[in-house]
């Protein structure tokens, strides 16, 4: 992953600053010049930037309506205006740094051409910094209506852009089965930020991640995930351009904060190649059911689906905290995890809104297939409905799971576990 710095220390991280301070103090006491810290000698991030070339001409903030003629009336095809705005921003990259903010005023913008919002192909451009800024959710709406939905994306970033921001925008799949964003990386595509954005309509993928490295450091804040998903809102490891599944590993650090996940059917997160994922706060609801059986998923819709894919021994870590889930029917699954190692942790979560319904007692909204190396599973201070299912896969000691200070709404601790429950421990839990 790319190195991370602190703005309060002028680009050096906290450890570098402390090391430098200690070296300076030692030099003052001995009368010697301090040696450069090892991290400063070897880290590209700690070196002073060398700026080459000339600052590009043009405005730093552009408006797709005033500058490129977009109508925003919901009827006129604004594809050309958005494509021109992106080309302008790509043309102003200077010394690998983006210099342009693209403003999208309030309105409804019809976009028929694929990749019109962002079209970076083949890794030809290595740039850091691109920002799309709307007027607010439900105020700035982008209707993506390509002629065909399957394998068609509104945005495409192939190993080109890092540090891409989307703010206060709504995205609508006006052609069922279209997808929002395809991101391919061997080290460049990373650092995406979504703030107060919304997705509605029927999508195949929200974000589809492909590649052998990075595609990491992505954050969603106060966003709403609505609509429906034939695959998943965030799918990690698409393998369209990556010929080796075993290389699909560095999918790290995804943060979802204060989300409103309220969609009709499909999966929210799907990570067959591992990942480091944190979800904090918000409400997660599947409001309907799949219209027909899916070859991959049957009739289920799953918030967190982590199947086991062939890959190197990458990080496998998931944490959910302070989230309210609604399990409205037996086909709604909170987690279905078959990772072969790592950890899964739920803290102060509640999925008991419908625990009073007749299906709840026999439902299994939390499902695990666990091998000799895990994952290790833990629930702290959670309120849980139905039963949890543990399937042992392969030899070894079997599943290791622990429930601390949890409320089991439909069963006693003795009846709460389906499958291999001999390695599951309950501490100060209350059953029905």
Automatic annotation (TrEMBL):
Domain Rhamnogalacturonase A/B/Epimerase-like pectate lyase: 65-143
Domain of life of the source: Bacteria
Protein name listed in UniProt: Rhamnogalacturonase A/B/Epimerase-like pectate lyase domain-containing protein
SUPFAM superfamilies: Pectin lyase-like (SSF51126)
One family name in Pfam for this protein: Pect-lyase_RHGA_epim
Stretch list, region Disordered: 34-54
PROSITE patterns xrefs: PROKAR_LIPOPROTEIN, TAT
Organism (species): Streptomyces glebosus
InterPro entries to which the protein is assigned, alphabetical: Pectin_lyas_fold, Pectin_lyase_fold/virulence, RHGA/B-epi-like_pectate_lyase, TAT_signal
